[in-house]
Structure formats: C-alpha cells, structure tokens
Amino acid sequence: MSATSETLVPFEDVLAAYDPALGLEVHVELNTATKMFCGCPAAFGGEPNTHVCPTCLGLPGAMPVVNGKAVESAIRIGLALNCDIAEWCRFARKNYFYPDMPKNFQTSQYDEPIAFDGYMDVEVDGETFRVEIERAHMEEDTGKSTHVGGATGRIHGADYSLVDYNRAGIPLIEIVTRPILGAGEKAPAVARAYVQQLRDLIVALGVSEARMDQGNLRADVNLSLSPKGSDVLGTRTETKNVNSFRSVERAVRFEMQRHAAILDAGEAIFQETRHWHEDTGITTSGRPKSDADDYRYFPEPDLVPVAPSREWVEELRGTLPENPVERRARLQEAWGFTDLEMRDVVAAGVVEAIEETVAEGAAPQAARKWWLSELSRRANDAGVEITELGVTPAQVAAVQKLVDDKVVNDKLARQVFDGLLAGEGTPAEIVEKRGLAVVSDDGALSTAVDNAIAANPDVADKIRDGKVAAAGALIGAVMKEMRGQADAARVRELILEKLS
C-alpha cells in the first residue's frame, strides 16, 4: 500500500490507537582541513572531482591514514553527549555497492565505536525527554550523485547520472540514538528539539559548520508504531537525509500517519529507506532497508586501532564549551525572559540569533520581538528556517537602533525588513531610499493635526471635555494621513495642546 495525503490517518486517531517509537541517526560532517584517510582538502564545493586522490578514489594499492583531528573531534562530541570513550576501538569495512562509493565499501566503525552509552536531555513544552545515545562513531562520507533528466531528480527516470567524488572520504561522525519511547503526541516536536539542540552543541564545540542546507548535518528519521500499550516495537522505516529542523518534525508526523493508514488496512509495514520531499511534505519509497548482517562488516586491515589515552581524553574534556541547556538558563536570567518566553525562543531556534543581536547593542526584549514575530512570520510564509531568511543579527540590531533613535517606528521598521530581504542595502540606506523616516517637523505635524480635528469634531469635543483617551482616534487619523511616518508621541502632544 502506498499512502498518499488522501489516505493518511488523522494525527489524533494515530495517537488513540498506536504508540510511536523514534530513532534518529545524525551525520555530522567535521570541519577538518583534510579528509578522513588522506590529505585531500575537505572544503565544501570546488569543481567536480578536483579534491580527490588515489586513496579517496579507492585505487588499488592506496593506503589510508587516520586523521588525528577527526579523532579528537569525535572524542569531544562523545564527551559532550555524556558518552563513555573507548579505550581501544577500530575501523571496519561496511560492504555494499553504490556508485558514489568508489571503494564499494565504506570505512566506518561497527561493534567498537569511539563513543557509546550517552544521553541528551531535551525539553518540549515544559516536559523533559531523555534521548539515550547508543553510539557516536567515526566514518567517511560518500560522493554525490546527480541524476540528470526525468521529473524528480531521482535515479528512476533519469537520462544519465554524474558522480562527484569531492565529498568522498570527508570525516563524518554518526550519532545514533536508542529508541525514543513515550513521547506520544510530542514525538514530532521531540525529534525536532533533539536535532536542533544537537546542532547547537556541535556549533558550540566548533567541530563542524553544521549547516543543514550544505549537508554538514543530516538527519535520518526512523519511525515505527506499536499497538497502544504494546511493549513490542513495530517495523520501522528510515527517512533519509532530512535537511531542516522543520522537515524533521514534519517527516515524523507524516510517517506516523502513513504507518497508521497501512496498519489500519490490515497490511504490514515494509522495512525500507524513504525519501523526504520538502515541497510536498511527503515521503516516498527508496530501497529495502538492510540490517547490519547484510553489510558483511569485518575489521579494516589497512588501519591500526585507535587507543586514546585517558590523559588525552581528560584533557579534551577540559575544552568542552558550556552545556547548551545551562547556557540557555544563564541567558534567560540575563535577558529577564519568563519561562514561556524562553521556551518560545528555544522552539523557534533563535537563541544564538538573539544572543548575537543583543551583543550588537539591541535590548533583549526588542531582539526577541523581531525574531519571534516579524522574522518568524516571514520564515513561515517562505517555508524556510528562520535562520535561512538571510537577515543577520547585526541588521536586526541596526533596525532596532533606528527605532530607538526615533528615525522609524515599528510599523516603518517592518518596511525596512522588506528592503533587507530584497537586498536593497543597509537599514539606514533602505530608510533613505524608501523615504521611511519618521516626520518630527512640527509644521507638517501641526497641519495634519488640524486636519484631523476638523474632520472629527465629535472626537475633538470629547477631548476638550477631559476624555483624553479619545486622542487615540485623532492620532490614528494623523498617522493615516502621514502614511505611518508621523512621530506618534509628538502628535499626541500637539493634539492635547490644541484642545486643552
């Protein structure tokens, strides 16, 4: 059965009949200078097949050498995730054929990962969920296939395919969770919160750019459903390479509804990988999902084991940054945000953006206002993450300074953001080009106030009788005549002076 949007079970009905189990595999591309097992540049981009050598192309006789910086980054990631660090571990060959893998096997780790048995606590709507980390292991990335022709960009229906091996061999850390149980209706949000918090941690460690749009951080979402109250996990599917926080949440929700539709029809879930489609918000079938036995793992004979000393591990522990959860608590106190306000900030993924905006001189509440209202709305309308809009914290702070200096008001500031998104220059340049500056000239304001009083004699009489609150109607009339560019505070003063 292939579920479509018409055959999905309503989310509430899924929860009434089934318990979801989540599993997340996150691949982190390290920012080392060179690849995992050779000296080729690990830089993003470049002309196709220019960052390659006999080793990462898998040519006969080429011998790999482990990247020491990648091992260091792996240990630091493991420590930050509260993992145990192996005293001795080794690499293995994961055997399978795929055109973008030039050796026909991937050098990875199997039963002896560098880090294991960790956890990360995430909070969703005031409830804390402990996500247990099964392992964090080292491996190399594959190349990148581009399928030309056809309607979907997939290999099926393509006229031909091209392979770029620049990415082949770049160091990866794969972080694998144990099944996340008991999340219920919050399962999609828990998945998003975990990947989001994990990215924050990776960025704080400085081991990766962790840009999902460039593939530095990619999430595979495993999902299964069990009958309500059952302690037996259902058959899982794995949605591959989900590349945004929003999409992680949407993919979990979609798969829950799709699985339920199949199970309700009395059919079985097929264990497979699936493709996520950002434009339609659905998944489609990929290939049958292999189990570990199918990969015929065996120890990599060309690499020596990795045996980090305890002294080195403890030295690296001393380099860890502030825990993101503790950091958020500190920032919340410094900013004076309520629990609800901070929860909204975390859920929107703008902690760093607000922190940088405050560092540029904006007040915390002002920074929060712009990121959570104006910019969040625009991101939702565009269907992108808020940090992908292209507006920087420095620009937000510059807009707020224009408000603080009474050059523009909040309404006009929204038009400044229009200009920023259109690439019209700096906030100050946009104000000048668009003629957005607030009018504070008493002559122009006085004329507009006189016009408003003449057009609204009943309101004017109320103000003369001491009903000062009625001034709001006249202020609105003046603002309309001045296209929102009047200094509202000065307009109020002039109205009261004229009608006192």
Tell me what you see in this structure.
By secondary structure, the protein is of the alpha+beta class. The chain has 3 domains: 3-316, no CATH class; 324-408, no CATH class; 442-499, Arc Repressor Mutant, subunit A (Orthogonal Bundle). Helices cover 39% and strands 19% of the residues. It contains 16 helices and 14 strands. It has helices at residues 11-17, 68-80, 187-205, 245-264, 310-317, 324-335, 339-348, 351-359, 364-382, 393-404, 410-421, 427-434, 442-455, 457-464, 471-481, 488-499, and strands at 18-29, 84-85, 92-95, 105-108, 115-124, 127-140, 144-148, 160-164, 171-177, 217-227, 237-242, 272-277, 282-288, 298-299. Strands 2-5-6-9-1-10-11-12-13 form a 9-stranded mixed beta sheet. A hairpin with a 4-residue loop joins strand 12 and strand 13 (282-288). The N and C termini lie far apart (77 Å). The model is unreliable at 1-5 (pLDDT under 50).
SSE diagram, text form:
Blueprint: H1 11-17, E1 18-29, H2 68-80, E2 84-85, E3 92-95, E4 105-108, E5 115-124, E6 127-140, E7 144-148, E8 160-164, E9 171-177, H3 187-205, E10 217-227, E11 237-242, H4 245-264, E12 272-277, E13 282-288, E14 298-299, H5 310-317, H6 324-335, H7 339-348, H8 351-359, H9 364-382, H10 393-404, H11 410-421, H12 427-434, H13 442-455, H14 457-464, H15 471-481, H16 488-499
Parallel strand pairs: 11-12
Antiparallel strand pairs: 1-9, 1-10, 2-5, 3-4, 3-14, 5-6, 6-9, 7-8, 10-11, 12-13
Helix pairs in contact: 3-4, 8-9, 8-10, 10-11, 13-15, 13-16, 15-16
